[in-house]
Amino acid sequence: MARTLIATALSCALLAGCAATGQPVARSATGGTSARTVTLKTGFLPDPYSVTVAAGGTFAASARSSSCRGYIADGPDVILNFTTAADELHIFVEADADTTLVVRAPNGTWHCNDDDDLGDTWDPWVSILNARSGTYSIWVGTFTSGSYPSATLYFSEYGSF
């Protein structure tokens, strides 16, 4: 499902030039990052909005929350400043590697995922219902410490794909 949405977004980028993609996040040899800051508000376009990151790190994601898996950088890959009147925020990843997703919401709760909830891909997906305005810290992880594959992180307000 997510792949269909992504294919649509890519078609949009190729045909109309409307997709926004970011530059890869700078990552040191030890997995430290220089987080990219993204600012979005309800009704953002394009939806999904995408950012390219280097996934992974050497820090155990379970140290952030026991429900998190994989290895992440010591600092977030992306800081999302989100202003919302929306009910939902969906954050998902597409990569050629098996990735994980770790999100710290503005209220301090942790949201983690290894594979989408539908079980049809190894790409992680986090849906935050009743999303709040504020700062979301986001890490894209891998299952191998010190592995840094390229990944695309997406933000969407649409729950059905």
Protein architecture, described:
It is globular and about 40 Å long. The longest helix is centred in the N-terminal third of the chain and has 15 residues. It is 9% helix and 40% strand. It has one domain: Jelly Rolls (Sandwich), CATH 2.60.120. A 5-stranded mixed β-sheet has the order 3-7-12-9-10, with no helix packed on it. The protein has a 4-stranded antiparallel β-sheet with strand order 4-13-8-11, with no helix packed on it. With 161 residues, the protein is mainly β.
Q: Determine the N-to-C terminus distance.
A: 6 Å
Q: Strand-residue fraction?
A: 35-45%
**Structural class of the helices, strands and pairings?**
mainly beta
CATH topology: Jelly Rolls
Secondary structure tally: strands? 13
Principal-axis shape equals globular
Low-confidence stretches: 1-31
Radius of gyration: 14 Å
